[in-house]
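LAB NOTEBOOK - FOLDING QUEUE
OPERATOR: T.R.
BATCH SIZE: 2
PURPOSE: Compare the predicted structure-token outputs for two unrelated chains run back to back under identical settings.
PRIORITY: normal
REVIEWER: second-year student, initials M.K.

ITEM 1
FIELD SEQUENCE / FIELD STRUCTURE:
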Amino acid sequence: MNKETLDQWIARLFDRDRRAVAKLISWVEDDVERAYIMRSVLKQTGHQMVVGITGPPGAGKSSLVEALTKHYRVQDERVGIVAVDPSSPYSGGAILGDRIRMQAHGTDRDVFIRSMGTRGHLGGVTRSTADVLRILEGGGYGRLLLETVGVGQSELEIMQIADTVVVVLNPGTGDGIQAIKAGIMEVADVFVVNKSDLPGAERMKNDIEMMLNLSCDGKAWRPPVVLTSVLSQNGVEILYEKIGAHQAYLRESGQKDERRKARLRREVWRHWEDKLQEVFENVWEVAQTKGGEMDQGDSYELAERLWEERFKGGQIG
């Protein structure tokens, strides 16, 4: 694609053009001039914090995101939402139902909702998620919300993208015990017991508090546990305040900068992974032409030999 045309679309993005936001996101997802686009975008973004909303299916994550968005809009804040849905392992398609569930904001020009399929990527988010969030920031959306696939143990990857992770659980479902098994206790910056009008909400809150007594002893930040009900709007204001308190803690303690350094390291490694994958495909294609050597079945020996043959000069590429 012509670089001059790309520059025009990027300029429109920084002028808060919604069409430019949508176009650039689509190109990045499809890997069309992705590196060029993101280099331009990242020069002017990375300042806004990301709030990640995660938890098991049916916990009410989308409803909670909608309630938070409504709260932000009352304060005239622009909101960018990335909602990740699971892709079918057979067709590769995804329902992308969050736009349906968030119809209250469907016509609001200051709310941008982007649904994305995982495209087979584990971890509750996609490889393009971080880039999409920065494009939304570049488009002038100051509040960035990330809702992830409710897939349990593999969902821990959200911690690598979001600055504040909100884990949403339901009373009466055993989610509290499951949270320990899935390692979610280490991920959460804020716990939400949603649908708190149901029986067992207070008990679940107490159970989580007891777990935190064991796991957070001596830690500077203890995740608060908030009871919410989207139907009655109870607790949404408190959740908003707790998210703000955590982000203030990150700034004041220096944790914000530390997390971003760790995030940069992971993102650079992912780019290296992509490059190494390309190199491997080329090496493997050449190796297959050698016939019998590929039938030995010793993957360890073959991997070592191919690596030595390809990188003996110390060069990758």
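ITEM 2
FIELD SEQUENCE / FIELD STRUCTURE:
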Amino acid sequence: MDNELWVAPLGVAIPPSAKEPTDVVPYAHYLTAKQKSQIISAFQIDAYDMAAEYAWKKAMVKLKETIATLGMKFIGEMLERNDIDESSPIENVLTDHTTIQLAEQLGVIGSTASLKLKHANELITHFFSKDADTEIDYTDAFIIVKSSIQYILGEQDISIAIEFSRFRERILSETLKITDPQVNQLINSSLFYLRTVNTILLSSIKNDKGAKLEHALGNLNMLIEEIWPNIGDNDKWNIGTAYRDVTASGNFIAASGLKNALLKVNGFDYVPENLRSVTFKSTAKELLETHFAFNNFYNEPAVIRKLANLGTTIPAPALIECFQAYLAVYLGNGYGVSTVAAKVAEEQLSKIIKERWQYYFSKVIQNDEIILQKINSIRQIDRFKNLLESNDLTDFTGLPKNVQGLYNAILNSQYSRARDFANSLYFSLNITMKKV
């Protein structure tokens, strides 16, 4: 039996020999004959920007519509955004980057598809922004079009994995037993899926009443001891934050159930003390959204100053989000950094004490898909090395094996090894975490 509870599709099989638009575009089964012809014609007249933009927008609209079938309230829970409700238009809620991330977590696309689509998104974001100093060429346009077709437009009807939809319904409509075969599959699934199920249960605990609430609490209490060692600290903070929220709102049934769950794993260290951390977390998320949006180099300085001005001491519950946001801006993307924003990021990262950096490398970076994907180019690896050296962060030992390898490779300017370790850690987020 497959250890994964639900498995993402691999995309349509396009032959490796397909090197021309006329070889690839026919696989876009979602598009009409006229739409396919328009993409091919754009390549033929060297209008590469038109071909790339048209295919990409069609793909993102389709992907967002697919995710929207789960309901906007659920999407808001996945993104930890209270401002999203069922009436929120999905095109106003999800950036392309966030859409790809969610699609991967929900089993709509696989990890390889996610990696390639994020690269295509980076190309689109760069070449269609005011920071671009050249126009998009044939090669980059072809990459965007091929990825859009292979993983999204090649299917007439992509959908949320049937197995995921059924399991989501089960955990909200019945209290499962630890011996249930699907529970066994979940416990042995990748971090992405553990995180998604955790979010589903917490969403129900905070918003539902009656039987649904009872089932969600029962299932969390049944699962928590098994999944606690394998979920990231950020997911643990989410459980602690949910306990704080339901307690404050007077939802005593939910509060009692979450308290029992946290007691089973000595999890009260992850209950936030106050609301200050919420402001840090939301501003860090805003900075990340800006970083992955159009004209990011121009827009990042204002948002990063907003985060930096919140205070010099980052609350513990918000540390992971702030680390991620500051590092993402500091490392930049394949085309460079926002000079002003990167300087602020460097200043803020230099204020973080060594013990917190040790914690980041020991507990966090192996689950940080955004930063792992940023350890990619020679320039980005050199920037990471310079950051560590300038802040006397060069003597960490006893880290998890692959993290130690990544850390050492960065410090020794072993670019290929650093990329290999980062990729290995990233892809490990999508495979089983322990054997049945």
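REVIEWER COMMENT (ITEM 2): The chain has three domains: 21-153, 162-270, 282-428.
FOLLOW-UP: none requested
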